[in-house]
Amino acid sequence: VITMLKAFIMLNVEAGSEFKVYESLKKIPAVKEAYILYGVYDIVAKIEVESLKALEPVLLGQIRQLPYLKFSATMIVK
Asked: How far apart are CA 38 and CA 5, in angstroms?
């Protein structure tokens, strides 16, 4: 049984860009779920990858490169 590494990414984006960023996140294969929020964060995304090493390119190469992104916080879960 392969255990996937799971993480939640909390995102703050520029005002009015929430839906654009949400749609971009849904195109990333490692993003299994994404939701627009009302509160401290604008979007939460659930990520599943094979390992911690596989998480880095998703975070640094894809998510943190999204236009309109102001801040992200990553929480790895068990």
From this structure: 27
Closest among 72, 64, 65 to 42, alpha carbons compared: 72
pTM over 0.90: yes
**Per-residue pLDDT tens digits for 12-39:** 999 999 999 999 999 999 999 999 999 9
Give the C-alpha separation, 40 to 47, whole Å.
20
Length of the chain, in residues = 78
Q: Which residue has the tokens 């939640």?
A: 8
3-state SS string for 8-75? EEEEEECCCCHHHHHHHHHCCCCEEEEEECCCCCCEEEEEEECCHHHHHHHHHHHHHHCCCEEEEEEE
